[in-house]
Amino acid sequence: MRKIFAVLMLCSFSEFALSQIKLSGVVLDSATQKPLNNAFMTLGAYKVIADANGNFSIPQLTAGSYTLTITHIGCDPLALRLFLVKDTFITIFLPHHLHAFEEIITYAHNSREPDARLIQTISSKKLEQLAAVSLSDALINTNGISFLRTGSTIAKPIINGMHSNRISVLNDESKQEGQQWGSEHAPEIDPLSAGSIEIIKGASTLRYGGDAMGGVIRILPPSFRDTSYAEIALLAKGETNPKGGLIGLKLERYKPKSRLGQRAVFNVKRNGDAQAASYTLSNTGFEQLSGSYYGLLKKGNSDFSFTSSAFVQRLGILAASHIGNLTDLNRALSSDTPLINLPFSYNILAPSQRIQHYTGKIKWENKSDKLGLVSSTYTIQNNHRQEFDNHNGDLNAALDLNLWTQQLHLSIDNHLEDIRWQYGAMGEWQQNTFKGRYFIPNYLRYKAGLFAIATLERDAYLVEAGLRYDVQHTTSYHYEKDILKTDQFEFSGLSANVSGWRRIHQDVRIHLSAATRFRSPDINELFSNGLHHGSASLEFGDLQLKQERAYSLNAALNYNHNNLRFQVEPYLHYFNNYIYLKPSGETQLSIRGAFPVFNYVQTDASYVGTDITIKYQLATHWTTELDGALLLVKDHRNQTFIYGIPAQRTTGKLKYTFDGLSLKNAYWTVSSSYTAKQNRMETNEDFTDSPAAYTLLNTELGGQYQDTRLHVSIGVNNILNTSYRDYMNRYRYYADDVGISIFLILNYTF
User: What is the DSSP annotation of 419-469?
Assistant: First the structure.
């Protein structure tokens, strides 16, 4: 089995035929550009096999939407959505070699219905190859993505410099709802349960909500091959830092006769304390148990699916981040080593977190000539977060948050003449209750939204326009001096976008988008009052915060010719009433210890940046890649810099592909990543100086073991055991980041 990506180029070269349409094309190896013979094609009732030159032809089709499925020995199946109106020729590039496992940035119309989204896709095979136990693991090598970290185990994705509530994480159509406002509240998602993951950038994200200002990360369900099969996959990973590993099991089967597909995934992971270059990061152990079930039943023109998942996680909080008095806190902030340094252990003691997230989802889709594709989804989620501190110990949670969410989505996707129309509605009910120490109140929230998107595509260009309206009503409940106090907040507004692409040359395409969106202040920004346990800080909200409004411009230039691929994605975001967490420069003593103080504030701000990717094939077996991210952020109201913005970074990678060492389709990579010092910060605003710039070296060797279905990879991260602190890690105040780590991953499919 191999990971598949496709670059699909539609080149229409015949007149429109009213009664009969012919689909033809060629299948090529993406690495060698040579034809792949015997590729098997399925399009409805038609089944064809590519000839010795990779050519195929399917005649006598009528106009409409189709799904073309391509399978080839040693490759994952590929399903392409096509909308045919005339004779069409397509060129399909399949990565026949395992070493081609790379994410690819595509314009959505290439393999889907026409639209203007800019999408980067990570396949199920790539997730298994990475043994990705968290969303950050799955996105670790993706250009344009950085991370907001809390220690060695918690990471939240950053897109265009934005994270948390400015990034939407979707399970298919439903937004993942946990306590995602927290900097140390990572998404409760098991990537190994996903069929694939999409990263959607740019302004064309209105259908997913008006608050997705930075972008969207979409977890897609698996797709089943249209043949009868049953398979079992075993995954194991061991690593030296932090010491521990992962064991995973995937069961999947499909029966064409009943048109029923089922998939079950189970994963368990345990790690002990992480190690910096020269000392132990005490109490940073990690335990996770997760599982999911996905069932798909096809009846006539309808698809019925059911999804359920469970995610249970327990993780330690760096012991040195919880300090008993102000004197020791000041010592910790100025020390090169943590004040608490205990021997390595697998035990997880207070301070710690325990998180449980459960999801159930039912989805129905129907295709009709009159309405097009109609989709409706109902989702229920429960998120239970408990935080334990040194004061209460492991028995009673100092903070206990229980969040219930119900969501209903309805959408219609139809073609009227040359225009594709998408429109839909959503509704959400959410209730939060807390026990123990007060940090945010109990609240009840209702959300509703409507959207409409129109798309016009021609051979050389595409234009898309969208409009969305959202309303949100929140009622909070909390006690002040034994008196129940109720506050009500209502926010509403319009979001809009205009996007498109144009092919200015056979090898060059440009993408432009403009949008305006709004975001309501979240519950933590309004009400936070006291110790935020996981981030080891005192945080205070502001009930006077206003609605945030963003104006965005995004662009992309994509050049792809012979051995060279080049992509640059500049962006500009301007915010009115931008909300962020600002360090006060002060420390404060509480009953639970001494901590730095942060406040939620509001200003006008701009984000100006770009993501760059350059790939070049040096020779038959050698390729090189250079990625870069540049971001400048400014507070225009106060003419100052803004705290908590990623520093500039670059990554270079060299890859060699070969057959040898008892491996087939093998690869060896070596990479170097450089992160600059963040100099754009105000003097005396933060509690310590910005960490120095650093460089990390990594390497990996992998491939298929002989003629078996066993894939093996071994690698080393931070080869030089570099001591460093990352500006975007909240625990940089107290300790270094993780040192050298060696890992081994085994993946076998029966």
Answer: EEEEEEEEEEEEEEEEEES-SS-EEEEEEEEEEEEEEEE-SSEEEEEEEEE
Q: What pairing do the DSSP bridges indicate for beta strands 9-12 and 622-635?
A: unpaired
CATH class of the 21-94 domain in this structure: mainly beta
d(CA 469, CA 206): 10
Q: Are 506 and 487 in contact (CB under 8 A)?
A: no
Residues 347-361 as b or e (16 or more Cβ within 10 Å = b): ebbbbbbbbbbebeb
Q: What is the pTM of this model?
A: 0.84
DSSP 165: G
Give the 3-state secondary structure of residue 705.
strand
Using a 10 angstrom Cβ sphere, with 0-12 exposed, 13-18 middle and 19 or more buried, the burial of residue 118 is buried
Residue ranges covered by each domain of the chain: 21-94, 113-162+164-749
In whole angstroms, what is the distance from residue 31 CA to residue 563 CA?
Answer: 10
Q: Do domains 21-94 and 113-162+164-749 have the same CATH topology?
A: no
When pLDDT is cut at 50, 70 and 90, the band that residue 115 belongs to is low
Are 134 and 128 in contact, with CB atoms under 8 Å apart? no
Q: Listing from the earlier edge strand, what are the strands of the sheet with 118-123?
A: 104-107, 118-123, 196-201, 215-220, 167-171, 174-175
pLDDT at residue 106 in the model:
45
Question: How many CB atoms lie under 10 A from the CB of residue 564?
Answer: 12
Locate tokens 């069409």: which residue? Answer: 88
pLDDT digits (tens, 9 = 90+) for 459-502: 788 899 999 999 999 999 988 778 888 999 999 999 999 999 89
DSSP alpha helix (H) spans, 50-147:
124-130, 135-138
The token pair at 190 is 């098991």
Assess contact for 570 and 609: CB atoms under 8 A. yes
Q: Which helix (H) or strand (E) holds 330?
A: helix 326-334
CATH code 3.30.1230.20 for 113-162+164-749: no
